[in-house]
Design goal:
- The structure is a single chain.
- It is built from one helix and no strands.
- It is mainly α and 53 residues long.
- The radius of gyration is 22 Å and the shape is elongated.
Length: 53
């Protein structure tokens, strides 16, 4: 009986892990696409010039 409960719990845990992985990957891709469409580029702090004098 204990093995059955543990097996079912593991299947549920593994299923939630897969579901979360797919969801986070999808959100990551949509955020990257939104940044690309808006023309937002990451700012490189080393090459950024300071125009305040």
């Amino acid at each position: 009986m204990t093995k059955i409960v543990l097996t079912i719990s593991f299947i549920i845990l593994f299923g939630r892990f897969i579901y979360a992985t797919i969801g986070s990957y999808s959100q990551h891709k949509s955020l990257q696409q939104a940044e690309t469409e808006q023309g937002i580029a990451p700012v490189d702090q080393e090459n950024q010039t300071d125009n305040t004098q």
